[in-house]
Design goal:
mainly beta; Cathepsin D, subunit A, domain 1; 5-stranded mixed sheet; 13 strands
């Protein structure tokens, strides 16, 4: 999925979260943070300007709103609170997606650990993701 382009998602990996949330998939192909669960937004503005993302290169999926999402993330030795700004609310999306590209552009780095990867910024771990999928590989 990509906002306004014809780029399709490949394999993604799941981050661990605390609380009532379906889960989060880390994606290196999406160009924005995208969430299907409205209750995750701490700041929210409904959109009425027909903004959409393209899925599979042919299906337009409407973006209902934009805002900030606050998440309690599970790390190997503790939890952390992470706030993602400029996140799209897309109620018809099949998963909550966090863009690794956006995190990287905002100064975050990725490092491997035995079960997956850890995202950090300014030497502080933000969250971790476990290897998933049938192949158990990261993309």
């Amino acid at each position: 999925m990509a906002a306004g382009s014809n780029c399709e998602v490949g394999q993604v990996d799941k981050a661990s979260v605390v609380g009532s949330i379906t889960g989060i998939l880390l994606d290196c192909a999406v160009m924005s943070y995208m969430f299907m669960e409205r209750h995750l937004f701490i700041i929210y503005e409904a959109l009425t300007n027909n903004k959409y993302i393209t899925v599979g290169g042919q299906h337009r999926v409407p973006v209902a709103g934009i805002g900030s999402v606050s998440l309690n993330m599970i790390l190997p030795n503790r939890t952390s609170t992470l706030t993602l700004t400029d996140a799209f609310y897309i109620p018809t999306l099949g998963a909550n997606l966090v863009s690794l590209g956006v995190l990287h552009r905002k100064g975050a780095s990725v490092r491997s650990w035995i079960n997956g990867l850890i995202i950090s910024k300014n030497n502080k771990d933000l969250f971790s993701a476990t290897l998933g999928g049938s192949t158990g590989t990261l993309y």
